[in-house]
Amino acid sequence: MNRRDFIEKTIKTVTTASLFVNTSTAEQIENKPTSWKIPPGTKVPTKRLGKTDIITPILIMGCCQNLDPVYDRRLHRAYELGVNHLDTAQMYAEGQSHKTIAPFIKQIGDRKKLIIASKVHQTENNATPEKFIENINTSLEELETDYLDIFYMHIVKHERFLDKEFIDMGEKLKKEGKIRYFGFSAHHGNAHELMMKASKLGGGIDVIMFKYSFREMGKDNLNKAIDACKEAGIGLVAIKTLGSIPDDGEELLLWTSRNFTKIQAKLKAVWEDERIDGIASQMGNIQHVHENAYAAITPMKLTELEKNELKNIAESTQHLYCAGCNHLCESGMSEHLYVQDVWRCMLYAKGYGDERWARYCYKDIEPYVEKLPLNKLQTAMNQCPYHIDIPGLFNSAKKILGKY
Ligand code: SF4
């Protein structure tokens, strides 16, 4: 079960949108299944990705979920709607993502009609260009393709990944024809620093994927970094755009829109920032594909009321959303506490209802988390400006995701 199914099962307040079909208030009250009818032939709008020659749909298919290796209806329906950009990673679907995308590439029958982006993660202490190259070769074999349109260094936290040796690696891979464009994904609170540095390199980084949602908007340092990347011609893909939390608290807050579901409004908020070239979004079933595609296609904009309600959600649930600014809660400490990593695992488990994936991600940090003393976690909580319950979070993670 994914995040949306999880919510749909527990919440009885679905609102509907109606660009092409009128949906009555009575239907909303009765909470009938929502459908977003999109006229045949209508496609998701496209944008040029930075200064690359990639024309990307503004909605990109996130491929973290398990796909049907025989015939994946979601991928095909999304493709019909113009979503021909697939974003995967070596670690997605517990390492099976590439192999399950390969049949889809064959079914489309023309590799050039697809934009395939993939990612490889390495920790900062052990990363080398050679290891990345080895993993890219494996990725190409698994995907049964000769090249990636975009290769991202995945979950980059450290500025070391912008050193010459890695930038040179990207250039070498481009020259060899293994990748067309090169970049990195940034999930943590220092994304703005990495983006700013990348914008000043004078080339080498073509695309950056970064965490950006209604919760991050208005952050001055991030806005400056986005502007700098735009100025440098770096393509910008937003991820984690729903700003989800590992708690149901958000679902109890007011959402009155009759134009958009809350999910659609969150996507719209990001698309309305013209600096963003695309959103990579995981879509668990055909209905999610339609819900997202509809939001991408409709020319309707968010109203002030909808924007204010999103703002209210962000403010009211700030104490449940770890922003990844670990320099604040870890201030004065010699070790890294992995708060955001633990929080993200709990998001997968409790927010998305996907304990299997949460455990898969948690196992790498578990040895460190187990050793952290309670007093450190309490100090960190006291230093967190948003008062995240760090001891409670770690305790839940140990219970739910620990060795079992
Ligand atoms: S716990 Fe608080 S200070 Fe630490 S990373 Fe999360 S939001 Fe930032």
Describe this structure in words.
An 8-stranded parallel beta barrel has the order 3-4-5-6-7-8-9-10, surrounded by 7 helices. A two-stranded antiparallel ribbon has the order 1-2. About 6% of the residues have low confidence. Helix 10 crosses helix 11. The longest helix has 15 residues. Helix 7 links the parallel strand 6 and strand 7. It folds into 2 domains: 292 residues, NADP-dependent oxidoreductase domain (TIM Barrel, Alpha-Beta Barrel), CATH 3.20.20.100; 80 residues, no CATH class. It has 18 helices and 10 strands. The radius of gyration is 21 Å and the shape is globular. It is of the alpha/beta class and 404 residues long. Bound molecules: iron/sulfur cluster. Iron/sulfur cluster binds next to helix 13 and helix 14.
